[in-house]
Amino acid sequence: MNEQTQDSTEMRTLTVELGDRSYPIYIGQGLLDQAELLLRHVNSRQVMIVTNETVAPLYLDKLKQAFADRQLATVILPDGESYKTIDSAMMVFDELLRLKFSRSAHLIALGGGVIGDLTGFAAACYQRGVPFIQIPTTLLSQVDSSVGGKTAVNHPRGKNMIGAFFQPKCVIADMSTLDTLPDRELAAGLAEVIKYGLIRDPAFFVWLEAHIDGLLARDSEALAYAVEQSCRNKAEVVSADERESGERAMLNLGHTFGHAVETGLGYGEVLHGEAIAIGTCQAADLSRRLGWLSEDDVARIVALLQRARLPVTPPPVLDAEAFLEHMAVDKKNVEGQLRLILLEKIGRATLPMPVDIGLLRQTLQTYGRQ
Amino acid sequence: MNEQTQDSTEMRTLTVELGDRSYPIYIGQGLLDQAELLLRHVNSRQVMIVTNETVAPLYLDKLKQAFADRQLATVILPDGESYKTIDSAMMVFDELLRLKFSRSAHLIALGGGVIGDLTGFAAACYQRGVPFIQIPTTLLSQVDSSVGGKTAVNHPRGKNMIGAFFQPKCVIADMSTLDTLPDRELAAGLAEVIKYGLIRDPAFFVWLEAHIDGLLARDSEALAYAVEQSCRNKAEVVSADERESGERAMLNLGHTFGHAVETGLGYGEVLHGEAIAIGTCQAADLSRRLGWLSEDDVARIVALLQRARLPVTPPPVLDAEAFLEHMAVDKKNVEGQLRLILLEKIGRATLPMPVDIGLLRQTLQTYGRQ
Fold first, then answer.
1. Do B164 and A124 touch (CB under 8 A)?
2. Which domains does chain A have, with CATH numbers?
3. Residue B289 annotated to the active site
4. For B311-335, how does the pLDDT look when each residue is reduced to its tens digit (9 = 90+)?
5. Contact in structure between A89 and A153 (CB atoms under 8 Å)
6. How far is CA A16 from each of CA A26, A124, B249, rounded to the nearest angstrom?
7. Which residues on chain A are in Cβ contact (under 8 Å) with B155?
8. ipTM above 0.85 for this complex
9. Global pTM?
């Protein structure tokens, strides 16, 4: 499904196989210093970089140098999930149009998942689609949102409710950008890393149990391996099911619960990865009630997430009814039928239809509330 | 490219061939009274009809009856191009989310091009894409915008600047809806009908010269034939080039000039078809200056548009410089290079690159200003 190569500078390259929309993922140290790599996929005179106020001071100048000979525009948004809105997308459109950027202009997303999702959505919609490049600068976006073409903005009534499937031209994951990532965000990224082990890669889960401390200590070799394995798993899933008609739904382990946490608390109170960690524990608990996971399996999952310094219990303000209310509009549902990704065992996800609502209520009423 | 069938009720069916996204176009009298036809492509419990204040009193009840057993929502927007905005799309999203409509909900566009483009864009974006159906109620939308999957909203700096390629599940062109269409809008639709003759169907152009009076008199047989031939031409072009990388650009004859007229005057001052008629005359004039069309060809084109009661000269307030300014951000341009569809002869379009700006200025400075 994916070719893997390592060149002399230790850059790893994976490929998301999608026919004429296939694209590479580059993983390595110091990639933002390699102008040739940056320019390889930008054959346009007009380039717009979208980033935020946190990332811009750190990496924007490197990009500006690489694109010094182009007509370069920048949009710098405030940092945070609360800016992943139609209004922010409109700021991008306003600037593109003010500068008369054409349908062949390229957009570059420099930042975490908010910037990547928003920039991808703007690229999908501007003049019905212009090329864009993902340069994820957080662990979470490197292992998840930058790969696979899911773009979106949020709506007050739900996350990612307005969006498009739109693939980037390439993903450049410069591991050096993790040096400046706050500890809390590093942990949030590990929630998605652990997810890949849980849904389809039991050996990777075992590796993570052995290396979680090294990852938290930012061991660069361990981090590069974790990003590579995560992207490989994601690329394989996306290649098999780009538009989430089947297998791709497995990537949503913990996400329906997690989105309810995010919606219930309001964006910005919890990080996405933190909400996913909580949701993963709830999914594990429900999987145990369905007779699939053992008590020991659930304990291993909760322990690994806890060791990754992630929250594993839902916030007290969200009771079972609040969860059910917020889960009802999750995108993964079909005609009001709740679609929850659960675990048959560690390393294999499943999508039971219909979900046993009685057992779900038990999980929501009791998990983490003892 | 297209199969054509006629069943017992004289309904004509064409097909837009796009692999697994192929879809039918139904053309006939009284199709909105055929509940079975409406239900055939809506296999969802949740249905939202988007329409406007002009069309709703005329046809909304018919649709409501057909979908009486579904969870039915309606959004009724004010009438007019000035409502083809992100704000209107947000009204659709707000209502979809308020009702917790899922990813399997279906949207129905009941109205002209504004409603069709807007609803299609909302369908493309809601939860990254839900199915939608086009029920065009104007001649313009029946022969052009409802077919081919170009969806969009306007931006203050340009028409259709925010959009998506997103194909409907079917198009239902009920010719009966033309009975209530104002004369001015009927004429505006004829501008696009005439375009098909000019760009690729010389026999149809000759037929139009012979039948233009019958069309204006709303001869139902003539109208049905004109819609069928227009949709057949459009379907063939779209099937060959869905995303306008080549041949589909030919459909934009008169549109770069026309968009400049619409942008320059402000949306709502001229109808889209009227602007296209003006732009077609300008394109014909420039084609003559390039040595392709004869004086007689240009006269035939202008005469047919005039007989269709369409404007054929640009508004005096728009001078050559204003045109060039507004044309510069048209989507059809690549990297600032002006891409104008012109005519080699009646029945064959061409895309000269680069455009001779000197001759273009002559057209803008002199055509219609004597």
1. yes
2. 5-179 (3.40.50.1970), 183-366 (1.20.1090.10)
3. no
4. 999 998 999 989 988 887 666 665 5
5. yes
6. 11, 18, 30
7. 93-94, 97
8. yes
9. 0.91
